[in-house]
């Protein structure tokens, strides 16, 4: 949630503090951010750890949250990322907490035993960025080979 922006107070919608934002909530937040701060571009950080992948680093001051972020443009998520866990014991703990068989992750875990460094990462939805930048109404218009429930082949 943005500092100084409270959806219940400003928009009449209450969002549970540890729940994920659905598409409608993201779009409403985008409109609210624009009205209050006059920008289409904003970032949310410190997502609940339970909503992020097992390899996302928990916050040092409150392990219910993660060192992660999403970047939005006009109420649409365009980038998602965060700090990755680099400590073996914490990684194993998170794998177990996410009900993943540790044995299936042994090679991944071993890479950290042999010197993985602190790092982060992110993914960009390039087709979504192009759609929003060009003001298009459908992401399929930005894809060379769009797929949907009616078509799996180009």
Automatic annotation (TrEMBL):
Quote the EC number: 6.1.1.12
Mind telling me which Pfam families this protein's record contains? Answer: tRNA-synt_2 (PF00152)
Q: What is this protein called?
A: aspartate--tRNA ligase
Q: Which GO terms describe its biological process?
A: aspartyl-tRNA aminoacylation
Q: Which family does it belong to?
A: Belongs to the class-II aminoacyl-tRNA synthetase family. Type 2 subfamily.
Residues in Aminoacyl-transfer RNA synthetases class-II family profile domain copies? 1-146
Keywords tagged on the record = Aminoacyl-tRNA synthetase, ATP-binding, Cytoplasm, Ligase, Nucleotide-binding, Protein biosynthesis
| Keyword Translocase recorded | no
Q: Does the keyword Ligase apply?
A: yes
Q: Which InterPro entries match?
A: Aa-tRNA-synt_II, aa-tRNA-synth_II, aa-tRNA-synth_II/BPL/LPL, Asp-tRNA_synthase_2, Asp/Asn-tRNA-synth_IIb
Q: Where in the cell is it found?
A: Cytoplasm
Instruction: List the GO molecular function terms.
Output: aspartate-tRNA ligase activity; ATP binding; RNA binding
Describe the reaction catalysed, as an equation. tRNA(Asp) + L-aspartate + ATP = L-aspartyl-tRNA(Asp) + AMP + diphosphate
UniProt-listed Gene3D superfamilies: Bira Bifunctional Protein, Domain 2
Highest taxon listed in the record's lineage: Eukaryota
PROSITE patterns named in the record? AA_TRNA_LIGASE_II
Q: Name one GO cellular component term.
A: cytosol
């Amino acid at each position: 949630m943005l500092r100084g922006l409270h959806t219940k107070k400003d928009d009449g919608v209450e969002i549970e503090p540890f729940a994920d934002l659905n598409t409608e909530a993201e779009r409403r937040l985008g409109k609210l951010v624009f009205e209050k701060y006059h920008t289409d571009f904003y970032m949310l950080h410190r997502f609940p750890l339970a909503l992020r992948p097992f390899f996302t680093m928990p916050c040092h001051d409150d392990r219910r949250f993660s060192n992660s972020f999403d970047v939005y443009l006009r109420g649409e998520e365009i980038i998602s990322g965060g700090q990755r866990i680099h400590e073996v014991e914490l990684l194993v703990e998170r794998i177990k907490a996410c009900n993943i068989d540790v044995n299936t992750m042994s090679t991944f875990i071993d890479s950290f035993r042999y010197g993985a460094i602190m790092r982060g990462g992110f993914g960009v939805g390039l087709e979504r960025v192009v759609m929003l930048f060009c003001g298009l109404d459908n992401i399929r218009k930005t894809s060379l080979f769009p797929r949907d429930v009616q078509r799996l082949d180009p």
